[in-house]
Every structure is written in C-alpha cells, then in structure tokens.
Amino acid sequence: MERKLKHVEIPSSEITPYSLYLSRRDFLKTAGIVSATAFLTACGLNLPSTMASGTAFPTGTPTQSPPVPDSGQGQTTDELGNPLNTLDQITNYNNYYEFSTGKEGVNPLSKDFKTTPWAMEVGGLVQNPKTYALEDLFKFEQKERIYRLRCVEAWSMVIPWTGFQLSDLLDEVQPMTSAKYVHFITLMDRAQMPGEGNPLYPWPYSEGLRLDEAMQRLTIIATGLYGQPLPNPDGAPLRLVVPWKYGFKSIKAIVKIELTETQPETMWNDISPNEYGFYSNVNPNVDHPRWSQATERRIGELSRRPTLMFNGYYDEVASLYTGMDLRANY
Amino acid sequence: MPTTSKPKPRLTWLQVGTHILGWLPLAWILFDYFTGRLSVNPIQDIEQRLGRIGVYFLIGTLACTPLSTLFGWREFLKRRRALGLYSFLYVSLHIMVFVDLDYGFNLSQIYALVTGKLYLVVGTIALLILIPLAVTSFDYFIHQMGRNWKRLHWLIYPAAILSLLHYALAQKGDLFTLRGNILKPFLLGILLILLFILRIPSLRRWLSGFRSKLTVRTHHLPQTHKITPG
C-alpha cells in the first residue's frame, strides 16, 4: 500500500490542514470495526427484489436519511454512517480509460498529467458564454461533500470531495430558455492520455445531464478531495460528481461544458446504447443487461451490501423523475 | 542426459515446465495476497484472475495438438491432460471464490444470477462440461470407456468457446461490435479460432508433410562456424 502513495505528488504548500485526515492506523482500526459490523448486519438483510415490475420505483420510502451537509469537514462518515475510504484506495483504484483500462494502472500513468494552466469553456445555449481559468472557479463557494460513488461494475467507495455546485456556475452563465441539457467534454490530448489512442472508443469522453439534474444541489464540480487538490487519477483538475448516478456519468478532466436543446451524445451510451442509458441512475431494481445491480461491494469490506435506490439519495433526487418509467429510461 | 533403457517413465523438461507453469499463477496470487499487492478490491481481483488463468490453461490444452503438428514434437500431446487439469483447478477455485467469498453462499441469489444472466448461464454450462472431463481424465476411464471417451472429451471445444464467451460477456464492452474493453477476450478468440483451423485434417497433413521436407533439408545444411573472440 505504502509503495503506491508516492505517486500522489502534491506540493506540501498546497495541502490545507485537515483534521479529518486521521492517522492511518487509527482510521484502519475504526474502518475495520465498522466494516465488521456491516458484515454481520448485511448477512441478515433481505436483498431488494430485482423482480419488481412497472416503473422500477421502489414502494415506500427507502431512506429517511438527513440531507447531505454542505460541510463534511471533520466527518469520518457519510450521512448514513458509512466510513470514508482512504486516500490510498481512492487514488489507486480508478476507471479512467484515457490513461489505462486497468484500474491500478491509472495512478502511475497519470502522475505527470499537467493540470495547470487549465481552462474550461462554458458555452452553447447560454446568455454569458465564458472561458474560465481554473483559478477563476474557486470564486464559487467550495463545499465539502461526502458522497458514495457507485460504479456500474458493482463496487463503491465513500469519498470526501471538495467542490462547487454546478448550479452556481450555471446561474452565472445564464442558460437560455431553450437549453434543456448540459454536455460535458474531457480533454483530448493523446500525448498525455495514451488511452485516447485506443480505437475501440469514441474519444473524447463526453457525458450529459438534463438541465434540472445539473441544477440539483448534489451535482458538483469537484476540485479536490480529502482537503487536497484533486489527485490526477480522480480526474484533476475538474470533474463532475453526480452521486446518485453510476460513476461513469461523473466525467473527469473537463475542458468544455455546453448547454444544448437536444440530448447530447455520451460515450458509454454511444458504445453500447442498450446497456448504458443516458440517465444511468443507480437503481437496484433495474439490472445492467448482463449483470445484476442489486448488490455492490464497498471497497474495504468483505461482504456485498444491498445497493440503495438512487445510491441512497432518494429523498433528495426522486422528485426529478416523478412519473418516469425508470426501466425504460435506464 | 544419458539415456537409460529402463521402462520407468523419466521426467522431461516439458513435463517439469508444465507443472511449474501450473502452480506458478496460484503461487503468484498467494504472494500478492500475503504481501498486500492485491488491488483494494481483493475478492474481485482474485476471482477474475483465477477465471482468466483457467481460460489460458484451457486454450493451452487445445494448443497441444497444433503445436505437435507444427513442430513435430509429440511430447506436447502428453502434456494435454496436465494442462487440462490445471485449467480445471483454476476454474474450480474461480467458482469457489464466486460462491463463497463473493456471494457468501447466498444460494438463492446465486441461483437467480446463474439462471438469469447470460454470462453466468454460459459460464455454468462450461463448468458442467468440464466436471465430467476432469473426472474421466484418469487412465482407468480412458481404458474403460473406449470410443466413448473420445466422444465425451470432444466437448472441450464447446467448453473452451463458452468459457471465452463468459469472459467476454463480463467485460464493459461489446465483442460483436468490437467497442469498449474487449481487446483481451477478442485476441484470445482469434487464437482459439487459429488453433481450430490448425486441426483441419487436410491442413494438418499438409503441415506435417511440409515440416518433414524442412527437416530433411536442414539436415544437409553445413555446420555454421563458431565465432570465437580474439
């Protein structure tokens, strides 16, 4: 484990003090106890039925959790009591095909990735199109949000992000009334991102959200995690985080945001439209065509745990999908 | 090595190599486990590695006959059984990890998956084929079953195709449109097709004929000079 830490190169001057970052030993001890408890609990739990029909909305209220606080500083768990994953885990197990299709290959291959200077263009159907330098984006209120990240491959982590609400940025550029969707595009730079030479993918990576999803308070552009600037394997310097959707929706190394009237093309949807829908909301009742989404393995835990509707953010986001058939709009 | 006229079978380099190759991946996984080199998702890491190694050995088993055709070295044929059994070893470990570590013996959930998800249906059929092949791999059965033994063991071909399909279907990509993370199973598929082509009887005869001509010619080649320094 230690040997991998050296790849995270952050100048010590840039590291903000974080009370959150417990000594590793203490953290592991706590995490061990919590995950052991979770293991025992999980054994007695009934898994959500994957046979539910209709709109694939669960009946009843699956969560009655407090809303995610804006300041997760000092917290060692998310709002449901799940312990944070370690920086080691978060920076050494990444799906980031621009660098490598191997999750452990991303860290070493991304360590020299140049994130300054960085510019992000915001345009399309907006009143005030603007190109932001990375520094400009720190004027938006930076929030500490502890989110669960659920990968479509059925593993998950709990990550303490720092970032600003996308709604703050969109409020500034003023979407036109005709704007219905937000399109995000990753940097295209084959010299730095060797994976972008792989002809099996339609590069550059792109993703999209409906405008109301983009305006939801949980949708952030992350600029850091664990109080540090965003590590390269996690999408430095700017990445989207939409915690109620599968991880691949949370696009990394964003250089362009475009407001559009029609649903934008997104990479995984382009590769396999019947498997990776535009919505891709975390939903234990709607399986991936080839594998189950009913359970997941939290990194650091041994047993699987049931996957929560909208990744546990039901109370905050379910209203975005009222009346929609989530089986058809997977 | 001095040749002896004893009827007792001798260990050959290929035989020793086969067994080293057979245990090496397991030793490697254990080494990674005990030195903390597995990924932070260790169960999936071990499960997928075991599965891939099982497929590699299965393809290795099917490579014996073509290798013997190409190089005229009949000893390859004698290593088939060991390779096949190593494949079965890794496939068995792969399934044990799936049932126990991954799904914690949750049999109802496993049953739902195994009957509901194509990659698992395909994988399970491959396993069900491999079990009787492994059981009947002993000399006793070869002698007892006669022609039926060959008929039964012909099933290794569909088992190999299904195993590879199982692997490909579990990837985030599409084998048929060739998009996504599919390169490895695709290349293994090409290899498998090549191995099947090399079994076509007429091609096999032609290759053996071509090889024997080649060996005759090389026998007449003059010895090359040894280059000595100085």
What does this structure look like?
The complex is a heterodimer of chains A (330) and B (230). The longest helix of chain A has 21 residues, at 24-44. In chain A, a hairpin with a 4-residue loop joins strand 3 and strand 4 (155-165). Residues 1-53 of chain A have low confidence and may be disordered. In chain A, the strands form 2 sheets. In chain A, strands 3, 4, 7, 8, 9, 11 and 12 form a 7-stranded mixed β-sheet that branches. Chain A has a single domain (2-321), classed as Oxidoreductase, molybdopterin-binding domain (Sulfite Oxidase, Chain A, domain 2, Alpha-Beta Complex), CATH 3.90.420.10. Chain A is built from 8 helices and 12 strands. In chain A, 46% of the residues are buried. Chain A is α+β, with helices and mostly antiparallel strands. The radius of gyration of chain A is 19 Å and the shape is globular. Chain B is mainly α. Chain B has a single domain, classed as Four Helix Bundle (Hemerythrin (Met), subunit A) (Up-down Bundle), CATH 1.20.120. Helices cover 74% and strands 2% of the residues of chain B. Chain B has 11 helices and 2 strands; from the N terminus they run H-H-H-H-H-H-H-H-H-E-E-H-H. Chain B has a two-stranded antiparallel ribbon with strand order 1-2. In chain B, helix 6 packs antiparallel against helix 9. The longest helix of chain B is centred in the N-terminal third of the chain and has 30 residues, at 42-71. The model of chain B is unreliable at 225-230 (pLDDT under 50). Chain A binds chain B through residues 1, 43, 47, 50, 88-89, 92-93, 97, 101, 103-104, 152-153, 155, 200-202, 268, 271-272, 287, 290-292, 294-295, 297, 299-300, 302-304, and chain B through 36, 39-41, 43-44, 101-104, 106, 109, 112-113, 116-119, 169-170, 172-174, 177-183.
